[in-house]
Every structure is written in C-alpha cells, then in structure tokens.
Fold each of these.
Amino acid sequence: MVHVATAISEHRPAHFRRTTAAIACAVGIHSTIPLVSVARAQDGRHVKIRTTHVAGHVYMLEGRGGNIGVSVGDDGVLMVDDEFSPLAPKIRAAIAHIEKGPLRFVLNTHFHGDHVGGNPVFGTEATIIAQDNVRERLSTLQKIWGKTKEPMDKAGWPVITFAKSLSVHFNGEEIRMIHLSHGHTDGDAIVYFTGSHVLHMGDLLFSARFPYIDLEHGGTLEGYQHNLDTVLAMDFPDDLKVIGGHGPLTTLEGVRALRDMIRDTVAIVRPAVEAGQSLASIQKKGLPARFDPWNWDFITTDRWIETIYKTYSEQSAN
Ligand SMILES: [Zn+2]
C-alpha cells in the first residue's frame, strides 16, 4: 500500500490538494464558493491521476473529486465512480496504464457530481449500475443548496438499478453492491470486492476528515452513524482494505475512528443544542483540540457543528 499523504506531496502541497478536493466535493454548486473556483475544480488541465494498487484486482485512482475504485482482469475493466467529465481522458489513460481491456461497468456509489460527473462520457461505452434513488435523482431536476440543477445528460443515467443489493460477477470475483439507506444521501451503496478483500464505501466514509451529510437529499446524521455501525458489524476478512469517498486509503480502523469521532462530537454538541444554545455560540466554543485533524476546507469544524446542530434542533422542535 502506498502511503497516500506522502504520495500527495510529490505533486503539490497537501493543503492545496485539500482545497481542491473541497471544491470538488461541493458538487459543483455552493453559494459560498466563487464560480471561478468551481470552474477551476472541474477543469481537468492541472489534475494528475494517481494510481495505487489496493489488493487483488483492485486499484484506487485519485484525481479531483471522489476516489475511484477500478477492477482490472480478464473480463475487462469495472469502475466505481468516475469523478468529473473533463477528467475522463486522464482517467481513461490511467486505467489503460494498468490494463488495456474494455470498460464494461461503472458502479455509482451515490448521485453527487464529484462521483458521477464522468457518467455521460463513460455511459456511452459501459453499463452504469446504481441504487434506484441515484437514477431518480440524476434523471430529474434537483435543488442543491438553493439552486436548481438540471437532469444529467441521459447517457449518464444508470441502466441497471436495484433497491437493496446487487452482485456483478466479474474478473473472477463477486462484486457486491449493498444499499445502506439515509446516511450520506438516500441512495448510497457500498461496494465489496469479495475476492480482493477491498471495500469501497463511497461517501459513507470520509477517511480522516469530518463527513459531509447531505441533509437535503435524504442523508441523516443518525443514519450515517447507523451505517458505520452496520459496516463494522459485517463479517469482513482481517486484511480488508477500505477506500473512502474522500481521504486516504484505510482499513476498518479508519471506519471505527470516524464512528468514534462522530459519537464523541455529538456527545459534546447535542446537550448544548438541547439546552437551547444558539448555533453561533456553540460554534464559538468549538470542539476540543483533539478534533482539529478532522477539520478540512469543505467540512470545517464550524460546518460539522452545524450538521449536528441542525439534526438536534429539528428533533427538539418536533
Ligand atoms: Zn457525496
């Protein structure tokens, strides 16, 4: 396994990388991010795709946006998520560097633009598979941060959808997609490569950083916690490697660390919310310094506190 933090510094300062990842994760639309930054985030010119062999048939590609999982072998190529469409030629070149076979399937972990942006390109040559709600959201108007987002080009819509789970038998192993509801969005699926012992969790895992929970599109804080517990209770082999939607390659230790961080920060913020303190005053107090490493450009400590605040102020109001 390549140590990703070290690998990143070969290209550019870690802080720059985090900034661009943050913009990418903003699904292309965010009222607080200048449009020029968004444009730069989606413009692939300065992006390098970094390839890491994870285990067995599976590789991880990091460019800009969500981490990509790739299976290569005798049956060809299968991708999990595909970042932004301007990056498609670079993603294609990175995969060709590993394996020359045809791209057969693209699995989407959820509908956010930094994970499915390449769909209209790759959908012309491969079959796209996703949970039912992903197709629903990509094929209809969506409101994202107060702005209307047009449906995706039809070539990018998932062709095969499922409610709870689906298996693709490919490159000598069962690749299992399992829907875990109402965590990051309402359409998330984790992808388990049963022979390679690799799990891609999409944005149900932000590795070593505060998670984004899309409360406008079916995500919930308690669902997110429940899904992490569900994953930790599953029967995985000891040598499992875990790819998160964002952040460095990890293992179940990374999942456990995220679960514990959420539990501990909720235990700090929730009583303050229920005691009627304002969001501003809770943010001013902040979190203990040991949570600082989780802070990043997209989900800062303030924004993470806001996610907890929204969850429990709404529950108190009901
Ligand atoms: Zn996402």
Amino acid sequence: MKIAVVGTGYVGLVTGTCFAETGNKVTCVDIDMAKVEKLSAGQITIYEPGLEKIFLRNIKEERLKFTTQLEEAVEDAEIIFLLYPHLRERMVVRI
Ligand SMILES: NC(=O)c1ccc[n+]([C@@H]2O[C@H](COP(=O)([O-])OP(=O)(O)OC[C@H]3O[C@@H](n4cnc5c(N)ncnc54)[C@H](O)[C@@H]3O)[C@@H](O)[C@H]2O)c1
C-alpha cells in the first residue's frame, strides 16, 4: 500500500517508519527542508529506542523516503496521515 505522512516530527517519523517496516511504501513530507535533507541522508532526527535500525533498513530497501513536495507524496497515496501541528496549537502559540 502507498502511504503519505504529512509532518515528519515525533509522531510522523515513528508512524512512517513503522508502516514502511510492515511492507508499505511510505513518503514522509515536511516543510522543514533541513530536516528532510538530514532524513534523506539517513540521519535520524528523533530518539526512540530501536527506531534508527528500522529507519535505516527501510530507507535502504526503498520503502521509506522524504520530501518537501506535498503533491509528490500524496498523488498516488491510498492513505494520507496528517501529523503536523494543527490549527488549535498554532492559535495557542499566537495568543
Ligand atoms: N508527540 C506526541 O506525543 C503527540 C501525542 C498525541 C498527539 N500529537 C499530535 O500529533 C501532531 C504532531 O506532533 P509531533 O509531536 O510529531 O510534532 P513535531 O513538532 O515533532 O513535528 C511536527 C512536524 O510537522 C512539520 N510541519 C509543520 N507544518 C507542516 C505542514 N504544513 N506540512 C508539512 N509538515 C509540517 C514540522 O516541520 C515538524 O517536523 C500534533 O498535532 C500533536 O498535537 C502528538
């Protein structure tokens, strides 16, 4: 199954990596270009026990990739997870 994960922070990276590990083709999207470059180069950006090994294996086996291009990620996706900060959180920050 093709899956898109929008927002590649704590929740998105764990979600994307685990769905890749179970055999899905996952594209993770983020607006943070530096983060996407690091992840694409195989540098994990969060710490979760055991995650790095799975992350690296799935990049190598081409089930997990990263992009800043939303369209590229969602055009063929059968499931799209939205895992970025939502509107209420942004409003709280502004107040
Ligand atoms: N971390 C938790 O334990 C937890 C638990 C329950 C719910 N949540 C919810 O899950 C969501 C994600 O949380 P998180 O902890 O992963 O946050 P995070 O800050 O670690 O990651 C969010 C990511 O989304 C990216 N982003 C922001 N706007 C974007 C956009 N328009 N398009 C693409 N990417 C965008 C940011 O660059 C960042 O990398 C939030 O809504 C949060 O409330 C988190």
Amino acid sequence: MKKITYRHRTPFYHFLKTQLGDQIPPRLLPRRLRILGHVAILWLNPQIEQYKELIGETTLGYSTKIRSVLRRTAAITGPYRKPAVELIAGSPETETVFRENKVIFHLDPVKVMFSVGNKAERLRMSKLGTDEFVVDMFAGIGHLSLPMAVHAKPKVIHAIEWNPDAFHFLQQNIQSNNVSHLFQPHFGDTRQLAPRIGKGQGDRVIMGLIQGTDQYLEQGIQCLRPGGMMHIHEIGPKEDMATQLLSQLHKIALTMNRQADLVSTRMIKTYNPRYNHFVLDIQLNSR
Ligand SMILES: C[S@@+](CC[C@H](N)C(=O)[O-])C[C@H]1O[C@@H](n2cnc3c(N)ncnc32)[C@H](O)[C@@H]1O
C-alpha cells in the first residue's frame, strides 16, 4: 500500500478526506489542486475514476473562487503543448483571468498550458531585461516575458508563438498589462522567425520549451549579440540534469564561432520521480 507522507497531506487532501473519506478510500484521494482564476485542476488516481463527478462537485465547495473543475487526463505533450483535461464539475466556461506578481494572465486552461510550479522563475524573469532587446522563442501566453515586460521594462520583447490559442491569449495579455509599446508578438514557427528577428543583436533569449529545446539551440544562438544571455529550459535526470544538453550546446556554439559559458544551473521543479525541470543561464561570447 502506498504510504501517505506528511508532504502529501495537503489542505485540499484533508478537505476531501473529511467530505468523502467514508465513501472513497482516503489513500486514493487526490492531494494536489491547482487553481487558475475560477478554474481548479486536479489529478485523479485511475482507481477512483468512477467517483470523478462526486470529487468534482465536492471540490467546488473547497473555495468560493472555484466555479469549474478539470481533471488532467494525460501529460502535456505535442507541438502546441495543449493540455489533456476533462471538465468534471461546474461551469463549462473555463476562460479565466488571474493576477500573479501584479501581472494579469488571461487564459483558458482547457486550451493552453500554464505551469503554476514555475512561479519562482516568473519572479526571477521580472527582475531581468531592463532596456534590453529580448526574444521569447516559445512565448505561450507570455508566462515568462510578461513579468519581464511589466516589471523590468525591456526596450523590446519579440514574443514568438505558433499555437493559435496561446497566441490569442498572448495578444490579450499584452493589452491587459498595458505593455503593447514594448511587445512585438509574432505568430509562426520560431525556427524561421527567431534568427530573422534577433539578427545577432539580441541581448537576451528565453527558451521556455521543455522536451526538444536542443532542436532550437542554433536558432537561439543566431538571435544573440556576443555577450548575450540565453535561458534554456529542459528536463533531465535528477542525478545529472544538464550535462548532455550543455555538451550539445558547446558543440553547436563552436561551429558558429561562439563560446557558450555556463553562468548558472537552476532547478525549477520536480518533473517526475526521475527527472527535474531545470534552466541554464548561458552567456554566448565570441571566440
Ligand atoms: C511550454 S510552453 C510555454 C511555457 C512557458 N514559457 C513556461 O515556461 O511556462 C511552450 C510554447 O512553445 C510553443 N512552441 C513550441 N514549438 C514552437 C515553435 N517551433 N515555434 C513557435 N512556438 C512553438 C508551444 O505552442 C507552447 O505554447
């Protein structure tokens, strides 16, 4: 039997256990709940799938903020990083809005992703980029570049995105946060767009894609001036998160007559029991 450790006994778990513990084995009840605006998202053990409506209805009572409850049905994958979710209770109107660190985010969690666990990185981004030329190669709804725009005031942020839904919310978020004067959203494939936009003049590139970032290292480097910074997100084995990606980056940089100097490696969050999500800060110098 799976042991429930202290770490797993969240307030949400306690709430569900109190409400449903006599109907559903407590050890199978969900522990994690993410709340984005009025939408709550949870993960269900397949063994209690038959109780999904009951758990959803009960979750509506957990907070007065919650009006829709979604269940994640699979991991976020695919070129558009579209979430796999199912409405299990409440309103089917899942388009919502919330504020984090004075940044307004509009989104529909049925259509686009938002990683609550990347909060510390969004906060860090809000302190970087003042007066800079920034390229956000995988902008999504503006997760990482909106905090930068609102707080640090770069000269310009070129934000590239190819998922039509994410691009729609990116545009809406740029307007809502009153940063249209310093944002240039571009719809399309970053592989073609980023080098044309950056033209070796960028001060900073954000590469917020995990699983496949290595396919875009060359384009990231092409964006940057000598001395420019890259923030590369990826996942990697816990015992040795970044070695493979770094060695790939060094090789590609050399072929472009550049030198990739590692400034820092940060863990963002646990991705799964064996992998971490990390971010590398790299300075691209000339050789
Ligand atoms: C992981 S999501 C954004 C995550 C966000 N930056 C964060 O860290 O929370 C990555 C985004 O990149 C977009 N994307 C992936 N490949 C792309 C490409 N070749 N061109 C443009 N956008 C791309 C996806 O549609 C998705 O919205």
Amino acid sequence: MNEADGAGVAGVGRVLVVVPTYNEADNVTVIVDRIRRSVPAVEVLVVDDDSPDGTGALADRMARADGRVHVLHRAGKQGLGAAYVAGFGWAADRGYDAVVEMDADGSHAPEELPRLLEAARDADVVIGSRWTAGGRVVNWPRRRQLLSRGGNLYTRVALGMPLSDATGGFRVYRVPALRRLDLESVASQGYSFQVELSWRAHRAGLRTVEVPITFAERERGASKMSPVIIGEALWRVTLWSVFDRRPASGRGGGRDQRSRWP
Ligand SMILES: Nc1nc2c(ncn2[C@@H]2O[C@H](COP(=O)(O)OP(=O)(O)OP(=O)(O)O)[C@@H](O)[C@H]2O)c(=O)[nH]1
Ligand SMILES: [Mg+2]
C-alpha cells in the first residue's frame, strides 16, 4: 500500500503529516526524512512557533529541497493544540483527505505510519495506542508511565469513553470527519488537546480505532511537558465529565486492540 502515484495513499487519499515543532533543531530533519522515506506518498507540514533554536529555518531548507515538505510559521509559542488546529486548517483548505499528528522528537516512529494509514481506510480516527494489547513504551521512566496510565484511567472512567490511550498524539484523522468537530472552538493547549478531540469524536459518533504502537522516549532536545499541561488536562476532563457527558448506552467496542463504536 501507500505508494505514491499522485493520488496519495491507497484507500485514504492525499495525506498530510502535521509535525508541530518548538525547539526541535536536533530532531526536525531526521523526523521529516524518516516520514518521507517510510511513506513516500504523504506530504509533510512542519508547524513551527518561531523556535529560538532555528528549527523553522531548518524546515524551510527541507521544503526548498522537497516539494512534498511544507512549513507553516507562527508568530510565537502558542501551544500544541493551536499549532495542530492551524495545521489541520491548512490541510482542509488545500484539499487533503487525511491528516496525521506526529511529534517531532522521535517518540512516534514514522515506520509505524503505514499500519495507522491502513486502519484509516476503515475509520474516521485512528489512534496509535501505547496502552492497548501489543502497545509498548521504551525507555520511559516509571513515573511517566504511571502518569500516562493514570491519566488515561481517569479519562476513561470520568468520560465513559472506551479508549486505552486518549492522550496519545500519534493519530490519523480523515478530513471530512474533522470538519464535524468544530475545531475553531477547541481551547485545549497541551495533552488536553488530544483528549478533547477524542471526546468530540466520540460525541459526534465518529468511528475511532486504536492500533498498538511502540512509543519511545525522546533521545534529543527538551520536553515541553509541565505541571501546567498536566493540570489543564485534569481540570478540563473533570469539567467535561460534569457538563458534557452523554449516556454510555449503545456503544460497542472495549479497551482492546481495535475498540470502536458507531
Ligand atoms: N508548534 C508548537 N509545537 C509544540 C509546542 N509545544 C510542543 N510542541 C511540539 O509538540 C511535540 C510534542 O511535545 P513534547 O515536548 O515532545 O512533549 P511530550 O511529548 O508531551 O513530552 P515528552 O514525552 O517529555 O517529550 C513536539 O514535536 C514539540 O516540539 C508549541 O507550543 N508549539
Ligand atoms: Mg515528546
């Protein structure tokens, strides 16, 4: 599958991989190269928030050398959520059929993208999942694992949403499905953005599929994780659980490898 023939990825169409970057000069070239090599049919959009370390200029250089690489420059650090919303809008305006979310730091392996795209043939949303059967994390300190598992458990219980990894950021969205999620009104900035989109997809009745991935700790550069980002996810999930939750009846799936619901 996935071979470039001008029409994009078989069964999915034109795919744009959106890579948000903030101070990823040590990673951006490597990750874009790996994406292009792993699935030559996709295009890549680096969304850079004017990184002081020159990430944007490195991305520009790649874009000049490869017509399938693009760069969206934003004025300053405005958070992961805002970067993705801008990237998704860029894709929708240009007629792409699907967008992929992927971190620049190597935690999400481009070599696993073909499996996610294959699942997208038959889904609106595909989530690369660390915590479903077959999923793995490599080199993550125990406290990060506990935080991720605990956050996902809380999300699952509070929202009644049958996902193993609602905070994961390696995903595929079909663009027509994304249009139903009213992205302009998304306020989440950090991890909460991933949960919010899962929650909106769930409430909109989209078909979500989880596929197992191997997630690796970043090797270079600094994490942007902070107590503020964790806190944001916590209070937003709590608010949604109080004000937004709908009855859990009639959903299929479970927490296993490919849970899905109507
Ligand atoms: N454009 C943009 N990208 C961001 C921003 N914050 C984080 N990113 C990027 O989003 C991706 C995920 O951020 P990370 O720092 O890896 O955060 P994380 O994966 O939650 O934390 P670690 O697991 O510790 O690496 C990376 O590619 C970052 O460069 C932001 O404000 N703007
Ligand atoms: Mg990371």
